[in-house]
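REVIEWER CHECKLIST
Item 1: Sequence provided? yes
Item 2: Single chain? yes
Item 3: Sequence as submitted:
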Amino acid sequence: QVQLEESGGGLVQAGGSLRLSCAASGRTFGSYAMGWIRQAPGKEREFVAGISWSGTTTKLVDSVKGRFTIARDNGKKTVSLHMMSLEREDTAVYYCAGRRTDYSDTVYILPWEYAYWGQGTQVTVST
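Item 4: Structure as written out by the authors:
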């Protein structure tokens, strides 16, 4: 089992950047596929970015490609989401999520596929 805690959210002007971090606890973090999921007010949770246990495979939703980058450090048990050129439409609560794998290089893109979730961190982009 793993526990997840996000940090790094806040208020930023459109065009600005933010870096979200997710700290994990638990011995088996290295076997977890990880993802960032966001939920805007009145909308369903949306997959944003995912990364395989090894970090060799990543996926991004089309709307953030070229602007967001996901990375992980298994030694530090962290996952990050570097967000650039932020847009008003990026405003949401961002959740770090994880799912244990059998060390396959799978990236999960459906929110319901993730078993473990953090509390979320608010990102607000102002214009």
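Item 5: Key structural point noted by reviewer: The chain has a mean pLDDT of 96.
Item 6: Recommendation: ____
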